[in-house]
């Protein structure tokens, strides 16, 4: 594997995670508008996105880089039947780095095998979303002052929610205790439960959100991932499993923050938005600083 690429959050050690948080904090306070001068970054989104694509594009613009790419593969030669192998081989001759989101699990790793330049995985199916994970842990560090020994509830679609998979792996470096809140159909996959066990960490599985809220420092809400369900009726059964309302936070810890990778559908009521414990929009802003850090790091500039 190309060593500079970011395919899975497990590509980074605990020390590297902490270094990248420091670098994101640096970019938040020290704009560097010339850093990516003369660099061309390809942004290839085979799946819809608002935050990941636009925060990467904002980060590239703020660092003085240039962007090529597509936001919809139907406007590319994929529409004519071109393979992912040929698309990546060709784009990697134009760009210094490729940011790619793709609906298939493993697509980023495959792209990395054929690319001449580093790949940043911006989400591959239900597998991994490592750059979201990086901004999540940056947000947790900013709000809790530490990543060590925290209690984290992961709520909603833990089966298909790639952000929860990456977060479990990252926070396993920091002695986290996990409260896994999901309906039976959307439990965290066995491989990730094994990851928690191998790290010797405590975890609790429940389907009752109210049980977890008073206990945790971080409430990580997620959307049920409609696009991953083969059967729409199965989605209908679980789509409204959890709706967080403001009154439900009454007995939460003083330091609790509610986070969400977004987009939300209806799993957080808008009456939570004005609660000082709601942090999801600031979390999305943190994505710009963290993605500046990741671009600089993967390109070997910082
Ligand atoms: N969190 C996230 O990946 O959002 P988008 O799908 O809008 O990029």
Describe the structure.
- This protein is of the alpha/beta class and 302 residues long.
- It has two domains: 9-128 and 287-298, Rossmann fold, CATH 3.40.50; 130-284, Rossmann fold, CATH 3.40.50.
- It has helices at residues 14-29, 51-62, 84-94, 107-114, 130-144, 162-171, 190-198, 209-212, 232-238, 280-298; strands spanning 40-45, 66-70, 97-102, 119-124, 151-155, 177-181, 203-206, 218-221, 257-259.
- Helix 6 (162-171) links the parallel strand 5 (151-155) and strand 6.
- Helix 5 crosses helix 6 (162-171) and helix 5 packs across helix 10.
- It is globular.
- Phosphoric acid mono(formamide)ester binds next to helix 2.
Q: What's the quick description here?
A:
With 302 residues, this protein is an alpha/beta fold.
From the spread of the alpha carbons, the general shape counts as globular
* Spatial arrangement of strands, main beta sheet: 7-6-5-8-9
What ligand molecules are bound, each kind once?
phosphoric acid mono(formamide)ester
Number of domains: 2
Q: What is the helix content? A: 25-40%
Low-confidence spans: pLDDT under 50, at least 5 residues? none
Report the CATH superfamily of the largest domain. Answer: Aspartate/ornithine carbamoyltransferase
Distance between the termini: 21 Å
CATH level 1 class label of the largest domain: Alpha Beta
How much of the polypeptide forms β-strand, as a percent range? Answer: 5-15%
CATH architecture of the largest domain: 3-Layer(aba) Sandwich
How many strand elements? Answer: 9
Radius of gyration: 19 Å
* Largest β sheet strand count, sense and barrel closure: 5 strands, parallel
Count every helix, treating DSSP H or I runs of 4 or more residues as helices.
10
> What would the CATH topology of the largest domain be?
Rossmann fold
Decide which structural class fits the backbone.
Answer: alpha/beta
Average pLDDT: 97
N-to-C SSE series?
Answer: HEHEHEHEHEHEHEHEHEH
């Amino acid at each position: 594997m190309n060593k500079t690429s970011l395919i899975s959050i497990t590509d980074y050690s605990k020390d590297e995670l902490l270094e990248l948080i420091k670098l994101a904090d640096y970019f938040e306070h020290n704009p560097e508008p010339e850093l990516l001068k003369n660099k061309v970054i390809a942004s290839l989104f085979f799946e819809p996105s608002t935050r990941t694509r636009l925060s990467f594009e904002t980060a590239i613009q703020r660092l003085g880089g240039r962007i090529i790419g597509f936001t919809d593969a139907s406007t590319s030669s994929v529409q004519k039947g071109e393979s992912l192998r040929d698309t990546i081989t060709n784009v990697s001759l134009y760009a210094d780095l490729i940011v790619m989101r793709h609906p298939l699990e493993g697509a980023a790793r495959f792209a990395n095998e054929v690319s001449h330049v580093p790949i940043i995985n911006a989400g591959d199916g239900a597998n991994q979303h490592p750059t979201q994970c990086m901004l999540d842990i940056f947000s947790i560090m900013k709000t809790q002052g530490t990543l060590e020994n925290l209690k984290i509830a992961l709520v909603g679609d833990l089966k298909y929610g790639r952000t929860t998979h990456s977060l479990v792996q990252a926070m396993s470096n920091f002695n986290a205790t996990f409260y896994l809140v999901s309906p039976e159909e959307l439990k965290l996959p066995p491989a990730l439960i094994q990851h928690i066990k191998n790290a010797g960490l405590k975890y609790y599985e429940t389907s009752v959100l109210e049980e977890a809220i008073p206990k945790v420092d971080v409430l990580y809400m997620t959307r049920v991932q409609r696009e991953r369900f083969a059967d729409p009726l199965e989605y209908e059964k679980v789509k409204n499993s959890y709706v967080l309302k403001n009154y439900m936070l009454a007995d939460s810890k003083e330091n609790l923050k509610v986070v969400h990778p977004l987009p939300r559908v209806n799993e957080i009521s808008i009456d939570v938005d004005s609660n000082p414990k709601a942090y999801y929009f600031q979390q999305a802003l943190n994505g710009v600083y963290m993605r500046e850090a990741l671009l600089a790091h993967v390109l070997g500039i910082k």
